[in-house]
Amino acid sequence: MKTIEKAVQSEINIKKSQFICSLFPTKSKKESKEIIQKLNQQYHDATHNCTAYITNDGEGYDDNGEPGGTAGKPMINALRKNDLHNVTAVVTRYFGGIKLGAGGLVRAYSKSVLEAIEASEIIEVEYYDVYNITFDYSDLKDIEREIRNSKLTIIQKDFGEKISYDLVSKNNKNIKEIFEKFHNKIKVNFKNKQVLKKIK
After folding, report:
1. How far apart are CA 165 and CA 159, in angstroms?
2. Which residue ranges run through the membrane (predicted)?
C-alpha cells in the first residue's frame, strides 16, 4: 500500500486564481475531517476549500461550492490514479476574477493535487500484526537467537523489571507458535495491527 511520508504543500496559479494544495498522511475519516476543519479555519478567507480523502475506513470528497463534479471528484481521481491510500488532499482556491469553466476547473483541481503528489515522498507501507513478548533477563540470549532465526523484526524494546519487545513478522509467521517452545518463560500477547513502513 502506498502513502505519503509527511505533509506537503504546493501552489499553482491559473488565470490569476491561486490554488494551494495541502496533502496529509491520514489513517481515518475522523483524522481527515479534523485536518479539513483546521484548514477551513486557517484559510477562512479563501473562495473555496475543496477536499478529497482515502483512508482505512472510507473515502470521500467535497466540491465546497464549486460546480458539482469539478473539484472533489478530480482530486480523488488524482489520488486513485497514483494508487495512494491513507491520504487527505485539501485544495484552497483564491478566485482571481477570471472564470475557468467546468473543464478548466477539473484540470486545475486535478493538476493542483498531482503537483503536490509530485512534491511528496511516496512510501510503501503494510499492515503488520504487532505482538508483545515479556521475559526475564536470564532468557535474553535464547530469545534474541530465536528472533534472528525466525527473521522477526523488533519495533520497540523496553528494559524494566522484565524485558519487553514489540515484534512483527514480515512473513506473517505465527509469533505465538514460534515462542511456544519456551513454555511459561515468556508471555506473548497480540498488541494491535499497525501500518508500518514496508519491512525489507
Report:
1. 9
2. none
* CB contact set of 193 (below 8 Å; sequence gap of 6+): 127, 128, 129, 130
* 194 or 62, which is more confident: 62
- What's the structural domain count of the chain? 2
Residue 84's pLDDT band (boundaries 50, 70, 90)?
very high
DSSP 17: E
One domain for residues 137 and 154: yes
Give the closest residue to 133 by CA, choosing from 146, 124, 123.
146
- Domain match, 113 and 132 both: no
152, 158, 161, 164 alpha-carbon torsion, rounded to 10°: -30
Instruction: Find out whether 138 and 186 touch, Cβ atoms under 8 Å.
Output: no
Q: Shortest CA distance to 66 belongs to which of 99, 88, 96, 20?
A: 99
Same domain for 154 and 192, yes or no, is yes
72 and 113 together in one domain: yes
Indicate whether 102 and 18 sit together in one domain: yes
